[in-house]
């Protein structure tokens, strides 16, 4: 594993305290195993060289954290249900919940200049979760049903994640209710339309709740 990758892994547990920040990246060298641990945090110059200048370093940390969520899904025990897999992914949010609105808003913002915002990172996040969850649970949908199933699950997950930001204690029951409702629906293009509606509302809500825009 490269030095950059190792430092990102050590920075992830620091997000709870320091957020998705350059500070978390700087302090990653302090928690390296002995005798590699540094006595001082990384300098701004070192952070920029390893992870990118300005907010690019923060984006790098956010994406590393999201990749960790994918790995958690991939490591789901055999025989896991969809509810169990998506609940486990929501649990990963809990330690960093207060920092997520700003993180999602940063991913949606352009690298320079003013909005319009880019919804593709949110779309990619939700669809990646849905896709990996289907693989983890052995979903064998084909062709149109494959697309509709993943679109519906992506909508459900992104909606539950938004709900978690505003009401963490009820997020899991809300996720269960969405999954139960979805299981009674036929996998058709109607579910794709449902996905589009959920996705737009969820993404807009996440950005609004961040207070950044």
TrEMBL record:
It is found in: Mitochondrion. Signal peptide: none annotated. One of its GO terms (biological process) is ubiquinone biosynthetic process. Its main location: mitochondrion. GO terms for molecular function: lipid binding. Transmembrane segments: none annotated. It comes from the Eukaryota. One of its GO terms (cellular component) is mitochondrial inner membrane. Residues 122-181 form the COQ9 C-terminal domain. Keywords: Lipid-binding, Mitochondrion, Transit peptide, Ubiquinone, Ubiquinone biosynthesis. Membrane-associated protein that warps the membrane surface to access and bind aromatic isoprenes with high specificity, including ubiquinone (CoQ) isoprene intermediates and presents them directly to Coq7, therefore facilitating the Coq7-mediated hydroxylase step. Participates in the biosynthesis of coenzyme Q, also named ubiquinone, an essential lipid-soluble electron transporter for aerobic cellular respiration. Belongs to the COQ9 family. This is Ubiquinone biosynthesis protein.
């Amino acid at each position: 594993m490269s030095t950059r990758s190792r430092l990102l892994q050590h920075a992830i547990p620091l997000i709870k305290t320091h957020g998705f920040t350059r500070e978390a990246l700087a302090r990653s060298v302090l928690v390296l195993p002995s005798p590699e641990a540094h006595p001082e945090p990384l300098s701004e110059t070192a952070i920029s060289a390893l992870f990118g200048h300005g907010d690019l370093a923060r984006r790098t940390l956010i994406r590393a954290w999201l990749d960790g969520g994918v790995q958690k899904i991939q490591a789901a025990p055999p025989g896991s249900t969809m509810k169990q897999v998506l609940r486990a992914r929501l649990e990963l949010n809990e330690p960093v919940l207060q920092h997520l609105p700003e993180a999602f808003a940063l991913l949606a913002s352009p690298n320079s200049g003013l909005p319009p915002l880019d919804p593709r990172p949110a779309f990619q996040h939700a669809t990646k979760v849905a896709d990996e969850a289907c693989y983890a649970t052995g979903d064998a949908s084909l062709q149109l049903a494959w697309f509709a199933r993943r679109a519906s699950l992506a909508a459900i997950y992104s909606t539950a994640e938004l709900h978690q930001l505003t009401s963490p204690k009820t997020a899991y029951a809300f996720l269960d209710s969405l999954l139960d409702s979805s299981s009674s629906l036929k996998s058709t293009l109607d579910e794709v339309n449902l996905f589009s509606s959920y996705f737009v509302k969820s993404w807009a809500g996440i950005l609004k709740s961040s207070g950044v825009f």
